[in-house]
Amino acid sequence: MIGIIGAMQEEIDLLLGALEDAVEMQRSGIRYVAGSLHGRKVVVCKSGVGKVNAAICTQVLIDRFNVNKVIFTGVAGALDPGLEIGDIVVSSSSLQHDIDVTALGFARGVIPYQETSDWAADEALVKAAREAGDKLFPGHIRTGKVLSGDQFIADRDLVARLRDELNGSCVEMEGASVAQVCAMNEVPYVVIRSISDKADGSADVNFAAFTVTASNRSFAIVDEMLQHL
Ligand code: ADE
Predict the structure, then answer these.
(1) 96-130: b (≥16 Cβ within 10 Å) or e
(2) Which of 129, 100, 134, 108 lies closest to 191, judged by CA?
(3) What Gene3D superfamilies is this protein classified in (predicted)?
(4) Ligand 1 site: residues with CB under 6 angstroms?
(5) pTM of the complete model
(6) Torsion 221-194-125-67 (CA) sign
(7) Domains of the chain: residue spans and CATH
(8) Which of the following is catalytic: 63, 172, 197, 200?
């Protein structure tokens, strides 16, 4: 069983439309739709925005639906200046940029007393996502570090800092909490994010304008990769 999470309705609408034999369930305030896609058993859900929602959603997928892979699909703001709106980032790893224990001497983004705070994505899922992306949108796919925090970023200085200090390719609000829950449960994950904005002063306008287009691209990649997993 593969868990597929989006944070917003736009990000899962196409997946829900493509599901066969769909059965709905409600758990911990989140609606889960189980069914099949290209003959693979999947559960699709909308986590809601932010790290806590995404963490609860992922743990329920693992405990109640026994998923053995998790794919997060959606949109993100670019940090890498080489990324354009519509480009796609497949996570090499994910890190929570808003954990800040610097006052106690820990580097920004480090969760104290843990083995890692930068969770590597599953190599096989990354490969499958890249192959699907390279086939559908050649020249528009990157693999890079996804940064997550409970903030919508719309500030050029902050973009430069997140890029310089944490080496992020893109920024969003859920991926690294999904990654942490998956790592703690030894479940493979990958995050696939289409760029909807550049996390700068125009981010709010671009986010609104490009979210549907960018979500469509993310869906196309998930749909294609499921045929090869
Ligand atoms: N998701 C899409 N764009 C984003 C941004 N600029 N900041 C955080 N999450 C986002």
Answers:
(1) bbebeeeeeeeebbbeeeeeebbbebbeebbebbb
(2) 129
(3) Nucleoside phosphorylase domain
(4) 75-77, 152-154, 171-173, 196-197, 199, 203, 207
(5) 0.96
(6) negative
(7) 2-226 (3.40.50.1580)
(8) 197
Q: What is the pLDDT of residues 154-179, one digit of tens each?
A: 999 999 999 999 999 999 999 999 99
Q: Is the pLDDT of residue 152 over 80?
A: yes
Nearest CA to ligand 1 atom 9: 172
* Triad 35, 208, 133: Cα angle to 5°: 50
Look-up of token digits 């030894």: 186
The single residue listed with the structure tokens 């859900």 is: 45
Active site residue 197: yes
Is pLDDT above 90 for 9?
no
Protein residue whose Cα sits closest to atom 4 of ligand 1: 77
Given the residues 10, 11, 118, 122, the one annotated as active site: 11
11 flagged as catalytic:
yes
Ligand 1 centre distance from Cα of residue 166 (Å): 16
Mean pLDDT of 203-219: 84
In the reported structure, the alpha carbon of residue 39 is separated from the centroid of ligand 1 by a whole-number distance in angstroms of 33
Report the atom number in ligand 1 closest to the C-alpha of 149.
8
User: Ligand 1 mean position to 87 CA, how many Å?
Assistant: 14
Residue 99, CA atoms < 13 Å, CB-side half-sphere = 20
- For the chain, what percentages of helix, strand and coil (3-state, to nearest 5) are there? 40, 30, 30
